[in-house]
Amino acid sequence: xxxxxxxxxxxxxxxxxxxxxxxxxxxxxxxxxxxxxxxxxxxxxxxxxxxxxxxxxxxxxxxxxxxxxxxxxxxxxxxxxxxxxxxxxxxxxxxxxxxxxxxxxxxxxxxxxxxxxxxxxxxxxxxxxxxxxxxxxx
Length: 138
Ligand code: TYD
Known about the structure:
The chain is mostly beta strands and 138 residues long. The protein has one domain: Jelly Rolls (Sandwich), CATH 2.60.120.10. It is built from two helices and twelve strands. A five-stranded antiparallel beta sheet has the order 1-9-6-11-4. The site of thymidine-5'-diphosphate (TYD) has 6 residues, from strand 4 and strand 5.
């Protein structure tokens, strides 16, 4: 794996608190998650033939964790693209700003939880790939 890939794919291991009753993961802003958490959203009931995402963010940082089921995520920093499986409730994927992402191959039970550093702001989205590349080169 190149250094760039290491930068592109940044996993955060969550330590589950487990006992005979089951497991619990607690996520705290500026601790487990490397930013203040301003927004939480989740995707569920996504059809298996559906792809989502297809955007980058100018400033937003996110951590994505599949709390149930699995899905694939493609990450692209403009020079390299790679695909990862999100398939564990104890593994968060840190997605920095200016990373193009696409999600697909959702299992029927997939619940993809996303923690975000900012409130929803459509102006922060880059929804055209050529605009993403253009912004990286300016
Ligand atoms: P969209 O960005 O298309 O989702 P994805 O990139 O995962 O495919 O978002 C779907 C709709 O939900 C779109 O109308 C924007 C809206 N939305 C919010 O209102 N708040 C949010 O926090 C998010 C993530 C989306």
